[in-house]
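User: My advisor, Dr. K., asked me to get a structural model of this assembly before our group meeting. I'm new to this, so sorry if the format is off. These are the inputs:
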Amino acid sequence: MPVTLKDVAERAGVSRSAVSRTFTDGASVSAKMRRKVEKAATELGYSPNALASSLTTGRTKLIGLVSNNFHNPIFLEVFDLFTRGLQDRGLRPLLVNLTNETEPDNSVRMLRQYSVDGVVVASSTLSPAFARAFRDAGIPVVHSFGRYSSSPQVHVVGIDNVECGRMAARELLKRGYRRIGFLGGPEQATSTQDRFAGFMEELAKHPGLNVKHSYADAYSFKAGRAEMQRLLLNDAPVAEAYFCGDDVLSIGVLSALQDAGQRVPEDVGLIGLNDMEMASWENISLTTIRQPIRQIIRSSIELVEAMLEEPDRYPEARLFPCSVVERRTLRSAH
Amino acid sequence: MPVTLKDVAERAGVSRSAVSRTFTDGASVSAKMRRKVEKAATELGYSPNALASSLTTGRTKLIGLVSNNFHNPIFLEVFDLFTRGLQDRGLRPLLVNLTNETEPDNSVRMLRQYSVDGVVVASSTLSPAFARAFRDAGIPVVHSFGRYSSSPQVHVVGIDNVECGRMAARELLKRGYRRIGFLGGPEQATSTQDRFAGFMEELAKHPGLNVKHSYADAYSFKAGRAEMQRLLLNDAPVAEAYFCGDDVLSIGVLSALQDAGQRVPEDVGLIGLNDMEMASWENISLTTIRQPIRQIIRSSIELVEAMLEEPDRYPEARLFPCSVVERRTLRSAH
DNA sequence: GTCATTTTTGCAACCGGTTGCAAAAGTGAT
DNA sequence: ATCACTTTTGCAACCGGTTGCAAAAATGAC
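Assistant: The format is fine. Below is the predicted structure of the whole assembly, which you can bring to the meeting.
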């Protein structure tokens, strides 16, 4: 069934090399030869086997797209942008789901078996050990949404989570909140740790505040809701305003508050992080810190592509500024 | 850098075939030989090149996961389940994003170049022409969430959308609604067409009803919200109750209604379809028809796997029953 | 220990391409 | 037509594996 180089060569009455050359650009083929070959190829419906050619060229154009984040709707957009961006450059995403995976070795082995040209780790909750493991295996890797200081030898594209923490703190202070809460994502996630650090750092400049913090189990609606319900029960009265680890978490928190009869922002203020599409939905209208994910992803793709040419490129961190998107879950500055 | 079969063979002092055989199960190797080879392999950190072996075996274990639905949060769960399910069986998903793609030929060529063993088309909005094109190219294909009558020669796994339409109609009738609306997804989507057909069929049994229908541009929050806003403006008064094409659409509709001061379910009733996670969120609490996506996906994977053994398997449609999940967006039966 | 039978091993060809090299063909000047 | 020079072409080896086949080694019965 599958038609090969040889078939085309025979039909066109030329050598196999000639056929190969007409399909690799930059090769030396006369116009006449090209016409002959292309004619035979279309008649036979030939398209070259990318995997076979990868054997000699050493390039598969396969990029491992590695993530463990399949519960935060923002990652649907992330996958959308990554897959389209990669496709547009002739690269193919091999999706690897690392949910519940703690051992980098398996993934490394797997991606090596498929000779991926590079790997994008798209996650803010996956241990930096994964990106490092790929790097150590000699696979070009970019960690998108990662922490830039955790693995200086790995390329990182993302935001400055510490600064985002500060930004959230300033926003709450500006509005005169004094009993303030941090409701983070998973405590082990570097993004949570950094946001917390920046947040506390900024708050520390203003003495006399009452600050509490706690963590949800995951960046998810359910976890946010559960954690806020716990606070309402065990830790009442809750703070005047919360910085939540993430939008989807915020939305869970919002739902718990509404169920408990608390009005937002009159009784409790909320600021999230990401600016996922849902945050702008009119029945949610979440004030949040916008993370420029399109730019992050574009840059990640450009970087991984550059590494294909230059695998030992000196590692860099590409950080994109975030900005506050004001909607209706914080009271206005007085 | 990459260590090959030959390296291992030399190190172990055996033939290349011997090494190959220890890594293909079912091959004849003595225990002693296996030990020798495995020792050398681990010392060198060898893992076989799956792509090279695919050349002779004709199996890549690559499965094209094709979709155009990157805006409906339910598809994040779909991707999660597919990727994990495939991985668990030693298959690798090659993700293909067909957003804005109308021409099947490109995708077919691309997937052929990568010699995927099979394809799963996961979409209820993608034209059946895609699944057919893969089939015609000789690639085993399963259309998940597809319409079973559109391409009898293609395997389909999903639900009976016509029956779901009937089910929604019965649910509304049971509750005494008489001014009834259908607010569908994209009119070209087979899922929308079928749900509409079933819905109207059931309603037709009850004369004297007042039934309207219209379509949103996409299965998305934004589209649902926009369409309901249009109805509120141009087509008031709106119906007593709507069957919406999909949950995320329903949530958009809900938001438009709330903004317009309409209470749900007191003024307007709503029933969706899917039972996505968000439908159960307490601030939404959408009554909906549950589509058993775990089962659909599991079955799709089993089916595509079976087709690897038997590519010309007689085509079948696997349909899973849906059921109504009652929450709080329909008034109770009187 | 011999012999027939089974298991294990290596050789060599092959999978579908690419590529260095040298021969063949084309080009232009004389 | 000849020659020097450039471009195009085909040969053959190779990429990293697999596999049919026959030879070698192991097994077991006698």
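One thing worth pointing out at the meeting: The CA atoms of residues 189 and 224 of chain A lie 15 Å apart.

User: Perfect, thanks a lot.
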